[in-house]
Amino acid sequence: MVRLRGLFTNLRRVKTAREDFLLSEASPLYVAVIMDGNGRWAARRHLPAIAGHREGAKSLKRAIKAARRFGVKELTVYAFSTENWQRPQEEVDALMSLFTELIDKEVPELHEQGVQMRFIGRRQGISQELASKMEWAQSLTSTNDVMKLFIAFNYGGRAELEDAVQAAARDGGWAEPAESAEFDLRRYLYAPDMHDPQLLIRTSGEQRVSNFLLWQCAYSELYFSDKLWPDFDAGDLAAALQEFSQRQRRFGAR
After folding, report:
1. Domain residue extents for the chain
2. Would residue 84 show up in a list of annotated catalytic residues for this protein?
3. Of 29, 123, 142, 253, which sits with the fewest C-beta atoms within 10 Å of its C-beta?
């Protein structure tokens, strides 16, 4: 028993030391996450897919709490892609119900914690009830400034660029080319004020960006974890942030 107590004490010390390190200037302020692996987590346990998504929601709650503690100012998560509509209708319907439930349950707590919520993506195909709850969550938390939480919902990177170009054309944005066309296009993205993520994390062992933040992640550092998203915890997030702090970012300069 004495040896076990000593082991757990050492683990706590390691975690504390890691968190202290992460609060240094080298830690990223802007982080994006592709939360992958909910379905596989459920399948390995012979559970329905929605059980994996519910566990994934718990993991997201842990990640938000940890990100705030580690000094992250903007966290962007991939919750539902434009391609996810192709999943079995039963799973899609269950996901929509889960999202509605989570907004009701979690937003008040996030508001108390000073988290500002923003939803990016298309509204087409989303029920009026869910769309209204998303607007309510954004309005309630609009003045919070501890951390911004961008939720990519019904989102696709190509769809965002397509929508941005169409919006710019309607606005006459291309009538007189500016000095920086890149800056002009950014004005028409879903969240023009979003900082480009310094770090993009993907779980489940897959190594691709899957149509996520194609414009914003042009120079993001990529970090791939073998953990399935429901198993991803604060220690795993700490490890990703720590690895980022040890990389040299050159932006093509040398």
Report:
1. 30-245
2. yes
3. 253
Radius of gyration of the chain (CA): 19
154 is catalytic: no
Question: Of 227, 217, 191, 186, nearest to 28 (Cα)?
Answer: 217
Closest by CA position to 211, among listed 93, 82, 77: 82
Indicate the pairing of strand 74-81 with strand 221-224: unpaired
Higher-confidence position of 118 and 252: 118
pLDDT-derived band at 4 (thresholds 50, 70, 90) equals very low
- Active-site residue among 10, 38, 84, 184? 84
35-59: pLDDT as tens digits: 999 999 999 999 999 999 999 999 9
Q: Please say whether the structural domain 30-245 has been given the CATH code 3.40.1180.10.
A: yes
Give phi and psi for 97, each to the nearest 5: -65, -40
Cα-based angle 77, 222, 252 (whole degrees, multiple of 5)? 125
pTM: 0.87
In this structure, what token pair is assigned to residue 134? 């998303």
Residues 196 and 117: their CA atoms lie apart, in Å, by 17
pLDDT at residue 227 tops 70? yes
